[in-house]
Amino acid sequence: MKTEFLTMENLGKAIDALRQGEIVAFPTETVYGLGADATNTRACQKIFEAKGRPADNPLIIHVLDLSGLERLIRGPLPETARILAETFWPGPVTVVLPANDTIPLAVRGGMPTVAIRVPSDKIARSLIEGLGRPIAAPSANRSGRPSPTRALDVWHDLRGQIPYIIDGGESLVGLESTIVDCSLDEPVLLRPGFVGLETLESVLKRKVLLPGANTPHKAPGMKYTHYAPHAPVIWINMKEDHLIEEALRKLDHEYHRNIALLAPLKWQNYCAKFFLALGDNVETVAHGLFSGFRELDRHNPDAIVVIWDENDSGVGLAIANRLGKASLKQFGRVRQVRE
Ligand code: AMP
Ligand code: MG
Predict the structure, then answer these.
(1) Cα separation of 5 and 305, whole Å?
(2) Ligand 1, residues 29, 32, 57: which to mutate, most atoms within 8 A of Cβ?
(3) Which CATH number fits domain 233-332: 3.40.50.11030, 3.40.1010.20, 1.10.260.40, 3.40.1360.10?
(4) Which residue of 3, 57, 182, 207 has the fewest C-beta atoms within 10 A of its own C-beta?
(5) Which mutation among 93, 113, 173, 322 tests ligand 1's pocket best, with the greatest number of atoms within 8 A of CB?
(6) What pLDDT was estimated at residue 338?
(7) Ligand 1 pocket, residue 146 CB under 6 Å
(8) Among 36-45, 244-253, 330-339, which stretch is predicted with the lowest mean pLDDT?
(9) To 10 degrees, what angle do helices 282-297 and 151-158 make?
(10) Mean pLDDT across 134-141
(11) Ligand 1 pocket, residue 60 CB under 6 Å
(12) What would the mean pLDDT of 151-161 be, rounded to a whole number?
């Protein structure tokens, strides 16, 4: 199949393709998505096939507004979901609620619930509006790879497998949405994202639980390896410079000096063959993490080493979550063992 790039000016082709049950990659403010008509099981199956995504990993459904959500859920809208929608939509927050039959079970990965989000990106919104139906869209990468934040990233992963990639420039946020399960009595943060835990708790005026031993459920996708470039990622999660230097020295030796370093600028001359600056506040780090992985991978390093001193506030929790899942090995505080 030939893969063609489109822009805002010729979205009609993409909308026609979606109508005919095809899949299309498009920009959103979080990362690039791979979309299909969410009510068409066969069309959504093409997403799973193109990504190599396991069938039990459900897709997030994108709608235009709260009334679009209400058409997809069973029972009344819970107060938590209403507050989150009113506060953050359009924007990078996804809510999980009991599903009615509108979205086929296979699209929901066999779950009785449905995950829904209202994107703010203009192109994403024009597609949903043009199709006149909700769009199911996971990130537009091969399963397990870093999410794409530019049209070219999608091209590298999916060229020849999808008819269209809409180029809308770089994704604003660079990390996937915050997912909150609102289907039970207490809200649970299933996936941290740009909107942090303390912000959720302050608008909801209640505790938001983290998935764990004392919560009954998990995000189904959490058990899969995620976000990893080809080179193994090694995360130095430390504060003290001398400890970081020591870890770098060890790694440099272990990987025969063929290391790519993604780190704050001050480490630029430190024993790495390739260096990319990782920004110095949580927003720029979130924005540059996945594109940094992809950029450095092009040099074929034996390892990509990331220096990031973990910080749980705001989007910091999401960065730590993605790094925990992407990394093969960690120095310092160990965040999350690969499942
Ligand atoms: P992605 O599309 O790659 O951003 O991942 C979507 C993630 O959303 C999945 O891996 C799940 O963790 C979560 N998700 C989607 N639908 C549901 C659902 N019905 N219930 C719980 N979590 C969901
Ligand atoms: Mg994804």
Answers:
(1) 33
(2) 57
(3) 3.40.50.11030
(4) 207
(5) 113
(6) 42
(7) no
(8) 330-339
(9) 40
(10) 98
(11) yes
(12) 98
